Amino acid sequence: MTRFELYKIAFTMLDSESTLFWQRAHIFLLIHGAFIAIIGLRIVDPTLLILFGILGMVFSIIWLAVLRMGQEYVYRWVRVINRLERELKIKDEKYLFEMHAEEAKTDNEAKKFFPKCLRTKTTNLIQFLILALIIFWGVVTIYGTYIILSDP
Questions:
Q1: Helix and strand totals (H; E) in the chain
Q2: Which of 13, 23, 90, 147 gives 20 to 30 Å between its CA and that of 6?
Q3: What is the torsional sign of CA 98, 100, 106, 110?
Q4: What is the phi/psi pair of residue 120, to 5°?
Q5: Where along the chain do its domains lie?
Q6: Angstrom distance (rounded) from CA 106 to CA 102
Q7: SS3 of 112, please?
Q8: What are the tens digits of pLDDT across the range 17-30?
Q9: Nearest-10 Cα torsion for 25, 27, 28, 33
Q10: What residues contact residue 7 under an 8 Å CB cut-off, 6+ apart?
Q11: First to last CA, the chain
Q12: What single-letter DSSP state applies at residue 119?
């Protein structure tokens, strides 16, 4: 197998890992959405509030771990591609992956219109969302516990 074939396989694997990364995120969003919808049905049973609060926190922590693992898989394939590019010098001294990065710079130009706080990596925004969900589920759990303890 030639280095260029390995390079194409690495690109395929990178694309596959990126797709899996987003599929995992969608699954966790659906789980949290279902939990929030159930709580939004005005279920006043405090035991269920505590149960969903704890489950929500557990799923948030699992999501954070899966997010970081998926991010590492994507970066691993980027490192493999970069190493293969150094070995496979293209005749015009531009690497294929770098040419894709040049195309992505035009996307970065569009980001200049957004506030600085929104110009960050997507994974950082997802981590912020997960942190907000952990806090939300903590509040739900505390509220359910408060209802149980204050009931005469």
A1: 4, 0
A2: 23
A3: negative
A4: -140, 175
A5: 3-143
A6: 7
A7: coil
A8: 888 988 999 999 99
A9: 120
A10: 81, 84, 85, 88, 96
A11: 74
A12: S
